[in-house]
């Protein structure tokens, strides 16, 4: 009876997650037999534990035997026995850089701990796998590192597996430093995130998350959330987390966060955005409409910027994009042109964008001077998948989850 | 859809001292020639891009690049390994800018650390100095300003090129940052990479200055520009993205351009 209950709970965990397969960078076929045997190991998640974290309204069961090992202001550190020699470790932070930067930082810290524990210096590290997916409505990223400690006859190999997700106002990062146990670690991570997902309140009328891939490699995810504020306007929160494998040994880390407000008709009211790259605040921007002008302020690489846009008319918000798609879909018109503020391209001017309906009612392209984004939409007028051909890179976006509809209730 | 624009510039770059090849900067190259044999000083290739007409405009005036044929998808080009061509410079190519900010306090220790000798070509000394100044070659950076690179001492080809351009200008040498592709012959093979480098002007000629591939053991290098960083203001990122979008996506029919093949 007990075993059946566990089996059902695992099935429910798997049903709540969605992702493509992880991208493995290293073919281990030529590795020694003992390595591949170790990589096949999995644990049995027969135990369940209570996770109670009143500060974040979390009170739920997780898979494995969980112990709160340490805590300090805004940080909780747990170990979870998942049936392997080394327990899984999970951190919960209320202050953090972002999914990509923080997960990479914790993973590197794990490698330093391995050096100390084994009394051997890190002699090599390689990107082993990257993955993105969702637990319920929460997007997660995964990054596995194959590493060597020591030299010559004393050289040893290890696999540092890392997964991270941001739920509500906290970040969860989990590590497991042992060869194999990939599926077990993932299942335990998913259950851990579900505990926070269950406690996540939302007043958003629409939420969505996209997986980003470059040349087929999952490099990150973006998230959008739309809610109605007390004035009847739309509050938009969006973020982007990316881990781009720039060579065999390293990943470039980017976390961007944006808050903006939109009128119900899709006109931008104001907005702000910041980006952390490789652990460093790379840029902060803010745009406001004052005295009939769009004023921009912020910093790029620690240098102050301040500008007044030459364009002082209607700027379209992200919410407005959905309205444009809906409008084209329900009319005889096949194209729409508008201006947007895209500080990543140019914080000092408005970018002209055209939206065109192509062959079918469900296929559109967004044309900017920089590139064309070709995408298909769902019944909610939201892109479900899209592509950008960009020099040697082909970028694809695939919707992983959406809840609600992108229209003010 | 907001983050569509946040595309990154990881299509650049090659660098000689990196531990491994860049994941997204390598450009597919096909050839029938024996790549282990020495290459002549002139080669012929076909560069495929979405905007070949724009690419043709970008190489106009550079006598090391000759457009032999063009169609709507590709340019057939002859490239010379002679890394100098006649041209003029603009006053802005001597001045500090938002990106090439050699006037910033943070850049000054880097600038003042350079001591040129009259016994050697100053351009070569600048390349050597920048190559040694960056102590942590890394592909993780997007595109950093001179002041940032000078402090972090880390970067890939764009950071090397930014710093080279900044130092040249501070020495009174007109300089500009070029984006494009480099075809490199190493003892182990022939490769094409998205790349950035600097050009310095002297005696009526622009000279290639590539600190990222300094002393990299290459047998031959051919530089194919696709654009110049003409906008060094706060809007630099837009130009980088445009450049990336118009960069050739593959090189085919790479051939010897000497009499042996003609």
Would you kindly provide a written description of the structure presented here, covering whatever features stand out?
The complex is a heterodimer of chains A (about 400) and B (about 260). Chain A is of the alpha+beta class. Chain A has 2 domains: about 1-200, Protein Transport Mog1p, Chain A; about 205-405. Chain A is about 15% helix and about 50% strand. Chain A has helices spanning about 1-15, 35-40, 100-120, 180-200, 320-330; strands at about 15-20, 25, 50-55, 60-65, 65-70, 75-80, 90-95, 120-135, 140-150, 155-165, 170-175, 205-215, 215-230, 235-245, 250-260, 270-275, 280-290, 295-300, 305-310, 335-340, 350-355, 365, 370-375, 385-390, 395-405. In chain A, strand 17 (about 280-290) and strand 18 (about 295-300) form a beta hairpin. The longest helix of chain A has 20 residues, at about 100-120. Chain B has one domain (about 10-255). Chain B is globular. At the A-B interface, strand 13, strand 14, strand 15, strand 19 and strand 24 of A face strand 1 and helix 6 of B.
Layout of helices and strands:
The complex is a heterodimer of chains A (409) and B (262).
Chain A: H1 2-15, E1 17-18, E2 23-24, H2 33-39, E3 48-53, E4 58-63, E5 65-72, E6 75-81, E7 88-93, H3 99-118, E8 122-135, E9 138-149, E10 156-167, E11 170-177, H4 182-198, E12 204-214, E13 217-228, E14 234-245, E15 251-262, E16 268-277, E17 280-290, E18 293-300, E19 303-308, H5 318-329, E20 335-340, E21 351-357, E22 363-367, E23 372-377, E24 383-390, E25 393-404
Antiparallel strand pairs in A: 1-8, 2-8, 3-4, 5-6, 6-7, 7-11, 8-9, 9-10, 10-11, 12-13, 12-25, 13-14, 14-15, 15-16, 16-17, 17-18, 18-19, 20-21, 21-22, 22-23, 23-24, 24-25
Chain B: E1 26-31, E2 42-48, H1 52-59, E3 65-70, E4 74-80, E5 84-86, H2 108-112, H3 122-133, E6 136-137, H4 146-152, E7 154-155, H5 157-170, E8 175-186, E9 189-202, E10 205-209, E11 220-228, H6 236-246, E12 250-256
Parallel strand pairs in B: 1-12, 6-7
Antiparallel strand pairs in B: 1-9, 2-4, 2-12, 3-4, 5-10, 8-9, 8-11, 9-10
């Amino acid at each position: 009876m007990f075993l059946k209950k566990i089996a059902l709970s695992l099935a429910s965990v798997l049903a709540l997650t969605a992702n493509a397969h992880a991208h493995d960078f290293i073919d281990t076929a030529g590795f020694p037999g003992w390595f591949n045997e170790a990589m096949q190991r999995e644990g049995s998640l027969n135990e369940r534990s209570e996770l109670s974290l009143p500060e974040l309204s979390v009170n739920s069961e997780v898979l494995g035997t969980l112990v709160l090992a340490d805590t300090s202001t805004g940080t909780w550190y747990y170990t979870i026995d998942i049936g392997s020699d080394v327990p899984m470790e999970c951190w919960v932070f209320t202050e953090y850089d972002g999914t990509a930067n923080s997960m990479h930082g914790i993973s590197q810290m794990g490698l330093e701990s391995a050096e100390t524990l084994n009394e051997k210096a890190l002699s090599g590290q390689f990107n082993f796998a990257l993955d993105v997916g969702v637990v319920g409505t929460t997007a997660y990223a995964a990054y596995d590192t194959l590493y060597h400690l020591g030299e010559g006859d004393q050289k040893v190999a290890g696999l540092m597996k890392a997964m991270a997700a941001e739920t509500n106002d906290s970040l969860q990062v989990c590590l497991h430093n042992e060869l194999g146990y990939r599926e077990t670690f993932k299942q335990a991570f998913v259950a851990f995130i579900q505990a926070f997902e269950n406690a996540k309140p939302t007043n958003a009328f629409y939420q969505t998350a996209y997986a980003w891939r470059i040349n087929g490699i999952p490099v990150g995810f973006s998230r959008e959330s739309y809610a109605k504020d007390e004035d009847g306007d739309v509050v938009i929160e969006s973020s982007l987390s990316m881990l781009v494998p720039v060579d065999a040994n390293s990943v470039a880390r980017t976390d961007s966060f944006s808050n903006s407000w939109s009128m119900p008709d899709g006109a931008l009211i104001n907005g702000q955005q910041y980006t952390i790259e490789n652990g460093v605040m790379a840029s902060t921007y803010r745009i406001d409409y004052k005295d009939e002008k769009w004023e921009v302020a912020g910093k790029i690489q620690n240098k102050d910027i301040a500008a007044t846009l030459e364009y002082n008319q209607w700027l379209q918000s992200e919410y407005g994009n959905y309205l444009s798609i809906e409008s084209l879909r329900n009319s005889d018109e096949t194209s729409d042109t508008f201006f947007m503020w895209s500080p990543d391209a140019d914080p000092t001017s408005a970018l002209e964008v055209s939206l065109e309906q192509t062959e079918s009612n469900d296929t559109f392209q967004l044309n900017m001077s920089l590139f064309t984004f070709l995408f298909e939409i769902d019944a909610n007028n939201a892109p479900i998948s899209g592509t950008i051909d960009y020099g040697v890179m082909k970028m694809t976006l695939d919707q992983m989850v959406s809840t609600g509809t992108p229209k003010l209730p | 859809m907001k983050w569509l624009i946040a595309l990154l510039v990881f299509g650049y770059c090659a660098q000689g001292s990196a531990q491994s090849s860049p994941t997204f900067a390598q450009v597919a190259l096909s050839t029938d020639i024996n790549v282990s044999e020495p290459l002549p000083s002139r080669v012929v290739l076909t560069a495929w891009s979405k905007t070949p007409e724009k690419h043709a405009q970008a190489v106009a005036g550079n006598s090391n690049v000759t457009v032999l044929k063009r169609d709507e998808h590709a340019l057939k080009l002859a490239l010379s390994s002679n890394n100098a061509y006649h041209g003029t410079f603009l006053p802005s190519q001597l001045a500090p800018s938002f990106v090439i900010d050699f006037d910033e306090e943070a850049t000054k220790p880097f600038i003042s650390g350079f001591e040129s000798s009259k016994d050697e070509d100053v351009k070569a000394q600048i390349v050597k100095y920048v190559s040694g100044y960056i102590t942590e070659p890394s592909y993780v950076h997007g595109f950093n300003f001179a002041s940032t690179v000078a402090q972090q001492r880390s970067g890939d080809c764009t950071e090397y090129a930014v710093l080279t351009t900044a130092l040249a200008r501070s020495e009174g040498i007109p300089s500009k940052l070029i984006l494009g592709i480099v075809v490199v012959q190493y003892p182990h093979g022939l490769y094409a990479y998205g790349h950035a480098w600097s050009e310095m002007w002297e005696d009526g000629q622009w000279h290639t200055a590539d600190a990222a591939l300094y002393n990299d053991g290459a047998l031959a290098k051919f530089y194919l520009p696709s654009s110049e960083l003409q906008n060094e203001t706060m809007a630099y990122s837009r130009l980088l993205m445009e450049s990336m979008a118009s960069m050739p996506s593959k090189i085919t029919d790479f051939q010897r351009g000497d009499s042996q093949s003609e």
